[in-house]
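Researcher: Quick test of sequence recovery. Tokens follow.
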């Protein structure tokens, strides 16, 4: 006979597997091609590149980790976006097994739904002691529209957040070394996986601390101070070295997001009430506007809040999650609180204070992503409300299971209306020109043409990032969360290439130019090759298929 612990482990593993299988449905990934397709857009390519660069560089020289090969000749270029070290902890073992970064990306992407769902189930069940209500919360948090819309953003999955909340709750209930160290672990994982989410955590810890001190459920003792200081020392040892490159970025480039850029992609209050049904027929202009959990989730939330406050159920605990959700919504609006995008300006929100006075916040572009804390809070409140409804109104387990199945079915139908990303095939072999580049001198700096956004309206830099996995030589090109102004200026100048641009390219730092003529009209190739053949400042040193490499003299 299995003991309760073994039964629980089997149940948790089964739940994670079920959520993984459900993720196959919601993402729409072609299962037969899982090892050579990626979600459309550049971020799946970027994440694959970042993991590959880190697996390449850490064994060689981890101190040079942030000096990635992209955006040459600039230094510290990995800091132009999230470092993804948290998800690397999952990706690296899988890559050692499968030797396929595309397959690894898809497994981590799908697995993030399972990790998220399991974490929310554990958190909700800890708070409610009701498995049925916890399953609903887990399903909502795992597969809400925000999650499906951002499936290529591994860092936005929020997969470690429920575990952080779980051990924050456990810590304030019992200040054991186990709870302290596990809380420290999950704070670290949140930081390593998504620095934007990490910036929100100190506020949450402070709210929990104030609540528990006021409720006299936490005492400041020598033992507790010792445990907290130990946690802070461990976190500082992890966070400070990985934060320095981002501080240098802000100092060297004057890096700060403009308010108008933040406001341009921020959601408004109306977006929280947009049903996935709308997305089935009208794709959102920006995925950052997809913050609503769905109409049925909002109905469940309203019913749960009404029932909790009517019955005075777990008010103190509900208050903290209600407050966290409210702050997250206000943060997601950005600098100004707006009901609709038709408004110009608006009332200044709490985000403005953090933007101006708290380090790190001015570098965040997409503040709508803080809505995940609303999603998490809503899931918990719904679990608490349903648990009390089941306890008072629907006491028989069979009836509880029936109603939960109905709720899950409705949620499944509504979430299925979200249009998942299209998957695009990736090449099965390395482009021969990159095999040649791999054997060239490390001092060379390559400019690949065409650059990012050009008159063909195609961002090729994301492909160059990804393709550099095969050689890791320095390239001028780059696709990331930020680009230096000098790079953007060069990109604009080279939208319409002519011979006069060669000196500009040389002065920028390039030693070689790679023309990918498959990306150009045929007449451009003919005229460009004719002009380059008479140009004394360059020399054709390699050509294969439709790729030509010119050395700058």
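Model:
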């Amino acid at each position: 006979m299995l003991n309760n612990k073994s039964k629980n482990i089997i149940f948790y593993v089964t739940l994670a597997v079920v959520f993984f299988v459900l993720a196959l449905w919601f993402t729409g990934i072609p299962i037969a091609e899982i090892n050579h397709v990626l979600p459309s857009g550049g971020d799946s390519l970027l994440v694959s590149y970042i993991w590959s660069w880190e697996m390449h560089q850490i064994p060689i020289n981890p101190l040079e980790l942030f000096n990635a090969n992209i955006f040459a000749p600039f230094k510290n270029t990995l800091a132009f976006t999230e470092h993804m070290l948290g998800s690397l902890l999952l990706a690296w073992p899988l890559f050692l097994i499968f030797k396929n970064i595309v397959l690894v990306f898809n497994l981590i992407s799908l697995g993030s739904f399972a990790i998220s769902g399991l974490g929310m189930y554990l958190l909700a069940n800890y708070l409610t002691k009701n498995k049925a209500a916890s399953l609903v919360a887990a399903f909502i948090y795992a597969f809400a529209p925000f999650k499906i819309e951002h499936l290529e953003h591994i860092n936005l999955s929020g997969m470690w957040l429920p575990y952080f909340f779980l051990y924050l709750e456990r810590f304030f209930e019992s200040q054991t070394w186990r709870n302290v160290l596990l809380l420290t672990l999950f704070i670290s994982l949140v930081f390593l996986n998504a620095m934007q989410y990490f910036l929100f955590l100190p506020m949450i810890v402070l709210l929990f601390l104030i609540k528990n001190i006021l409720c006299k459920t936490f005492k400041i003792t020598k033992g507790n101070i010792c445990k907290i200081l130990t946690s802070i020392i461990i976190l500082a040892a992890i966070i400070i070295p990985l934060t320095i490159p981002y501080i240098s970025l802000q100092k060297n480039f004057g890096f700060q997001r403009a308010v108008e850029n933040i406001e341009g992609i921020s959601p408004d209050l109306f977006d929280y009430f947009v049903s996935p049904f709308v997305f089935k027929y009208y794709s959102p202009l920006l995925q950052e506007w997809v913050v609503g959990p769905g109409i049925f989730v909002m109905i469940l939330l309203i019913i749960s809040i009404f029932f909790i406050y009517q019955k005075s159920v777990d008010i103190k605990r509900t208050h903290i999650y209600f407050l966290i959700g409210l702050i997250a919504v206000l943060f997601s609006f950005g600098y100004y609180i707006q009901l609709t995008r038709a408004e110009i300006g608006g009332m200044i929100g709490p985000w403005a204070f953090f933007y101006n006075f708290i380090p790190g916040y001015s570098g965040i572009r997409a503040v709508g992503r803080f809505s995940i804390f609303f999603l998490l809070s809503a899931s918990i409140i719904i679990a608490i409300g349903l648990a009390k409804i089941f306890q008072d109104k629907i006491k028989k387990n069979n009836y509880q299971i029936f109603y939960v199945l109905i709720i899950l079915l409705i949620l499944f139908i509504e979430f299925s209306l979200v249009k998942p990303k299209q998957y695009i095939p990736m090449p099965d072999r390395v482009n021969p020109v990159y095999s040649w580049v791999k054997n060239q001198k490390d001092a060379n700096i390559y400019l690949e043409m065409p650059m990012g956004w050009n008159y063909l309206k195609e961002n090729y830099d994301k492909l160059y990032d990804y393709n550099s996995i095969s050689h890791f030589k320095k390239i001028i090109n780059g696709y990331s969360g930020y680009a230096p102004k000098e790079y953007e200026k060069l990109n604009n100048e080279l939208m319409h290439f002519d011979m006069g641009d060669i000196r500009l390219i040389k002065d920028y730092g390039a030693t070689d130019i790679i023309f990918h003529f498959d990306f150009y009209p045929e007449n451009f190739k003919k005229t460009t090759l004719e002009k380059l053949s008479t140009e004394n400042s360059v020399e054709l040193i390699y050509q294969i298929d439709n790729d030509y490499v010119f050395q700058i003299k």
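The radius of gyration is 26 Å.
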